[in-house]
Amino acid sequence: MMSVTDKIIEIIAEQAVLETSDVTLESTLEDLGIDSLGLVESIFAIEEEFDITVPFNANEPSNSDFDISSVSKIIEGVTRLVNEQAA
Amino acid sequence: MKRVVITGAGTINALGHCVADTMKAMAEGQCGIGQLEFRDVERLSIQIGGQVRGFEAKGRYNRQQMSLYDRFTQFTLAAAAEAIAQSGIIFSGETAAKSGVVLGTAGGGVSTWDDNYRSVYEDGKNRVHPFVVPKLMNNAAASHVSMEYNLKGPSFTVSTACASSNHAMAQAFQMVRTGMAPAMVTGGSESMLCFGGVKAWEGLRVMSKDACRPFSANRNGMVQGEGAGIFVFEEYEHARARGAEILCEVAGFAMSSDASDIVMPSKNGAARAIAGALQDARLNSEDVGYINAHGTGTAANDKTECAAVADVFGPHADQLMISSTKSMHGHLIGGTGAVELLACIMALRDGIIAPTIGYQEPDPECALDVVPNEARNAKVDVVLSNAFAFGGMNAVLALRKV
Q1: Of the listed B31, B294, B329, B344, which one is catalytic?
Q2: What CATH number does the domain located at B4-241 have?
Q3: I want to staple B290 with a disulfide (CB 3.0 to 4.6 A). Which of B250, B306, B383, B392 is the partner?
């Protein structure tokens, strides 16, 4: 089974139309050329994949209880949500 | 070119079931937004909206009509009855042959789609009511108005998302101005407040869970509304000849297309529409006292709209008032410009500027006089109504006191 990290990188790579090898943990979505619509689509794909609800409002990304500033932050957030769900 | 005036107005929306109640609520800064009530609402993460309450279609419309009128058509007919009664215009003979109805709606019969999809997909039924198509089609409301009032001239429905009503009214204005029609019934309606309608919007993640706070630094999204606004646009001499009361003049309009992004607004596209409306109406920017903003309460719209206004008006941007009544009635999507035109009429005719309610924190990117929280008395001679749609399609109307 793929890890959370691998799966998220795959989702983001698909959104960015890149190879998974081009997506690093340090990448920001901006670096990868993902715009606001791409971000909303990525979050939707993540929610579907992990069966979680990601608290994200496009109007206040910085106030959302979910850090999207880099790939690793997204992985951290998703891991937390998946664990909370399991708990 | 003929002069075009408004001789009748009608509405139903979350603030009231008629123009007088709606204007009173706007003047008092009332909020019509609250907990949504409809089937499956508990499955939505967004549960607030500007829902029309206490509107009973039963009793108002007969059984045959009910089977043909989606809620957006019901709203339209209620508002049209008020507008045409106020106008006093009778559509007969040559007037009937040349006058028509142009309305805006983004979704048409959304709840008819929703109910019937539920019936065949969820309930597993294999048969739907024979009138599903004529009930849900986007032009159903315009068609029923034409039949009810004998309007036999140019009639159609415009659908440009959140600018639908302004585009529709611009078309109607143009028809009267060029002499093609002596009068036109125009405006728009929307009724998307059902499970599927709100669920679709929820997906975009631009909706607020608590309130619509346009221009406020802590704004966190839009809130949907529903209802209709309908007007009688009439050629000035035609209105005068029959002694009609004139609410205000429609002085000009402009449309523009951003040609850039399907959801993100463009300052340039908005500015071109605003400047174009002034030019079309042969007005100077200093003439404008009030702008009814598109003001959706999203991060992107409000700062872009303020920047566009600053660009067009220069130093005069700090002298004029701009407010968003969506804070009170919600965003009526394709019907929004029509209901918001009431705030423009109230400003011109009554000298009352509707406020932007829910305003809590100044935003340096929206540093204009947004008439926060309380209505203001002010004499204004010229107002604008902005509408900037998803898809980058903009329509701005200019109105003048008569």
Answers
A1: B294
A2: 3.40.47.10
A3: B383
